Every structure is written in structure tokens, then in C-alpha cells.
Amino acid sequence: MVIFCYREQWRYIMRNGRENALDKKFHALSNSTRREILTRLSKKPHSAGEIAGYFQITPASISYHLSLLQRSGLICCRQVEKQRIYSINRGALDEVYLWLMGLYNAKSNK
After folding, report:
1. Residue 1 has what pLDDT?
2. What is the pTM assigned to this prediction?
3. What is the CATH number of the domain that holds 96?
4. 75-80: strand order across its sheet
């Protein structure tokens, strides 16, 4: 299926085999805990411990969600002394946004 869009970046993403990466992002976004983590990280970077403080789930579950978000590319992690600091990757969110806007702006084939 080919969807035409006025945004050149969106066409670039779809032509260059980025669908698998996009699938990973949508899978990561399909979970409410991960969406809440992203909401928190959109305001400011957090350590894993700070993120865990917002939820009543095990540290192992937080680690799992952070790992999945990181593998999807939606978040980045950097080491600061003995802490891992997580932040949102706005470029990865741009890919999701452009794909959705491509659907929104697609011309009807009716």
C-alpha cells in the first residue's frame, strides 16, 4: 500500500525501510505505562529511580519498560556518575508524527 503525502520527510521514512523501526515505536506506544513514562520524560530527564517512584510496579518492570522504550528509539540513556539518566528522543517522535500526518493528509481514493 502506498500512501502519498505532501511531507518529503514522511516519504523518505517510508521509502527507506523504516517501517520495522516504526513498528517498534508503535509497539512501545501501545502500553499505558510506557506512554506515562514518555509523558514524564517529555517534561524533563529522569533517573530510573525517579521514574520508578511514579509507579507501583516492581523495579524489574520499570527496567523492562525503559529497555523497550530505548530499543524502540523513543528514549535515550546517558550515564552520569552512577546513575542512568533517561530523556525523550524527539527525533524518534517526529518519525511517528510524520507517519500519522501522512495518513491524515492522504488523498482519498474515492
Report:
1. 34
2. 0.77
3. 1.10.10.10
4. 46-47, 83-88, 75-80
